[in-house]
Design brief:
There is one protein chain. With 522 residues, the protein is an alpha+beta fold. Among the domains are: 197-252; 265-328; 378-521, Reverse transcriptase/Diguanylate cyclase domain (Alpha-Beta Plaits, 2-Layer Sandwich). It is 66% helix and 6% strand. It has 20 helices and five strands. Strands 2-3-1-4-5 form a five-stranded mixed beta sheet, with helices on both faces. The model is unreliable at 1-16 (pLDDT under 50).
Length: 522
């Protein structure tokens, strides 16, 4: 039987915000169920997207698309590249930096897991996602998830410094109004596991001083994870982590071999702990072989490599002398560490480049935008017309828009209300044009619309629709008794003689004002 997402359509007496919150809560519940073996039905996830579209909830649509991405990756075990590309395209158009970062982090993981020998594109995705999230300082569940995805991408390159930074940022983004206990448990668990992996890498290198310092941090993370919200199964795994940590870097005295039965995903860790603590080299080698066999290199690559390095050490101990295998193993360990540090330096450089690029883009954007309304300014208008001419566009329509008696609004209601009127007017004008058109604030209460249509009749009809939207706008929501109208002058002509076209439109605007305002003249 087909399962579909229950659609909540609030009626006249309903509460749309409540329905919206319930839809979001359902999405986050489905995100958690993705961790189950089979996950939720695919058509249930597709129904979430449909529900968001029907109810005009852009955030629910994007969350549903994100579910589709994760379903393809985690349940169907296929590359989510196509789904991710669609999600990135949508989030970038809507200016949703958090969801863009989330999608970029997922794509970075997909590119790394695809076996790229030179994962430059993956690194760029991760660097850009990191910088996008740096600009977000609020509390939002999507931001928590985005940071976690970035951290997982860092783990694939053993960039533990950056991984920890993302987990700590994720903790700051937890929204207390959302169901966050599960996410907090995930963060505490992951923080402890990162520190454990770091200790293992230092133990491989026999970097005793660094290992003791990192082990102290790992113990602190394990202690912080011992909280009531932690699921019982995870508590068992954290206990296994603690035993392995003590075996790699004893806190006091010699660690004892664990007596627990090796089972579950971390059975190999138990064998590894025994290999580190047994006095008999022969028994330790046997346990190490079992660890290598039972630690999945795709699930726990760091510990699998550590088990292999330990096997070489135990082989040399059994032989009673330094073997060629031990020397080669040590060389590999150092080379891998050097590659890790090089990857970290490269990623930090990429992040710096992304920061500079983001700062430059922001400065450039502000140079072409009106501060109050966010519309294009005169500088942007000049650049836009030059671009159109370069593309071979010869004729366009210019509509000059002027608010009627705007001085009375400022004098009677105050400049704060006047600014709100200008911002509302900017939104109405933006909504009334196509993506290929441009809306400009020339200054004060004067606006210009450059419509890339050579037909005067079509331009007039579009302006008539905009004037109707201005008349029908609920201006009293800004201030009681407020009423706003606008006059429009329209002209069509050659972009190469743009000043003349603007002068013609200005003359038409004058006629509209003289004829009684709140009308169009062409």
């Amino acid at each position: 039987m087909t399962t579909v997402a229950p659609r909540i359509t609030p009626d006249a007496a309903g509460d749309r915000s409540t329905a919206h919150r319930e839809a979001r809560a359902r999405v986050f519940h489905l995100l958690r169920t993705l961790q189950a073996e089979n996950g939720p039905p695919r058509d249930l996830i597709d129904g979430i997207v449909d529900e968001g579209v029907v109810n005009d909830w852009p955030d629910v649509v994007k969350l549903g698309m994100l579910l589709q991405v994760l379903y393809a990756r985690d349940i169907e075990r296929v590359s989510p590249a196509e789904c991710v590309a669609e999600l990135i395209e949508r989030t970038e158009v809507e200016g949703d930096t958090v969801m863009t970062a989330f999608a970029l982090a997922v794509r970075a993981q997909d590119r790394l897991h695809g076996g790229d020998r030179a994962p430059v594109d993956a690194d760029r995705d991760l660097a850009r996602a990191t910088v996008l999230l740096e600009a977000f300082t609020g509390q939002m569940t999507e931001a928590v998830s985005a940071h976690i995805e970035c951290a997982v991408a860092c783990e694939g390159r053993e960039l533990w410094e950056l991984q920890l930074a993302h987990y700590e940022a994720a903790e700051r983004c937890i929204d207390p109004h959302e169901a966050s206990e599960n996410r907090r448990a995930v963060l505490l668990y992951n923080l402890a596991e990162v520190q454990l992996n770091w200790v293992a890498a230092l133990r491989e290198r026999h970097a005793e001083g660094e290992m003791r310092e990192r082990a102290a941090l790992a113990r602190r993370a394990l202690q912080a994870a011992d909280v009531p919200i932690m699921p019982e199964a995870w508590r068992e795994e954290l206990a296994i982590f603690r035993e392995l940590l003590d075996a790699m870097s004893p806190a006091a005295g010699a660690a004892q071999p664990p007596t627990r039965e090796p089972r579950g995903d971390y059975a190999g860790y138990v064998h590894l702990t025994r290999a580190l603590t047994l006095q008999s080299v022969a028994e330790a080698r046997l346990e190490c072989d079992r660890a290598i066999e039972r630690i999945d290199p795709h699930f726990s690559n760091r510990m699998h490599l550590f088990a292999l390095a330990l096997a070489v050490e135990l082989e040399a101990a059994h032989a009673g002398h330094e073997t060629a295998g031990l020397r080669w193993g040590r060389e590999l360990v150092e080379r891998r560490w050097e590659r890790r540090l090089a990857a970290l330096a490269s990623m930090e450089s990429l992040i710096d480049v992304e920061r500079l690029s983001a700062e430059h883009a922001e400065l450039q954007q502000h140079a072409f935008l009106d501060d109050l309304t966010g519309l294009a300014n005169r500088r942007a208008l000049a650049r836009f017309t030059e671009t159109l001419v370069a593309r071979g566009v010869q004729t366009a329509a210019v509509a000059l828009v002027d608010l009627d008696r705007f001085k009375l609004v400022n004098d009677g209601y105050g400049h704060a209300v006047g600014d709100a009127v200008l911002q509302r007017m900017a939104g109405l004008l933006r909504a009334g044009v196509r993506d290929q058109d441009l809306v400009v604030r020339l200054g004060g209460d004067e606006f210009l619309m450059l419509l890339t249509m050579p037909d005067l009749g079509a331009a007039r009809r579009r302006c008539e629709a905009i004037v109707e939207s201005i008349v029908g706008c609920r201006w009293q929501e800004i201030s009681a008794g407020l009423c706003v109208t606008a006059s429009v002058g329209v002209a069509v002509g050659s972009l190469e003689r743009f000043d003349e076209v603007c002068a013609t439109a200005d003359a038409a605007l004058y006629r509209a004002k003289k004829a009684g305002r709140a009308r169009i003249a062409v």
